[in-house]
Amino acid sequence: MSRIDSDIKAADNISDDFKAELEKVLRSVLIAAIALASTRGNVITTEDIERLLTEKGFYQVGEGLLTTGQTELMDNARKYIAAEVKKEVEYSDDTIAKLETVRKDNSDAYVLIGAVLAQKIVKELTSVEIGMAAPEAITESLEKAVTTAGNQGATWTQTTTFDTYRNALVMLGIQEGLNRYRYHGPLDEKTRPFCRLHVDEVKTWQEWSTIDNGMNGVVTVAMGGFRCRHALIPV
After folding, report:
1. What does the buried/exposed string (b/e) look like for 28-49 if buried means 16 or more CB atoms within 10 Å of the residue's CB?
2. Is 112 among the domain residues?
């Protein structure tokens, strides 16, 4: 938020304490708006932004701007929040679209790998007494090899997609100097027991980094495991 920070710091007739409070509120609104958009397929409305501005105390703090004649700064701050959220949402949409393309390409590649593997198996079978194995058993074995390879590719790429999104949120928190994170995400029939246990919990980054998900690493690395739909939201 360097541009709006510079505007605030350069403003006249505003105390340093007030400037710091305004910067804090604006950062809080931006993070909350991005987190809200992430729960709605990266869609957020002007009404959503206005509500967050009110909830986070923007207008309450902004009353001080009105009394000191800084109405332009207040308007610019409001517009800046809306523009930043829009930019983050569009960037996220674009990134997810690109990652989805990569996911499909990689899945196709894994299926191809499975097909190559199947060909090798056929070659091996023809070098032995092929009559010893039933055709149905051979076909089933080959289909399983191809399907397994394709599923592994899909799992790997989907996990990578979620990891990229989660890392972006964590970096946002680091940039804003925040160290408390909420375990955020869906709570439905697909939610793993581990994730169900931690959804909506708030802990420091250090506390999350000591929790093992019981599958493939600590929470801060892979959340609930492969294809986990949850993220750590800075609060």
Report:
1. bbbbbbbbbbbeeebebeeebb
2. no
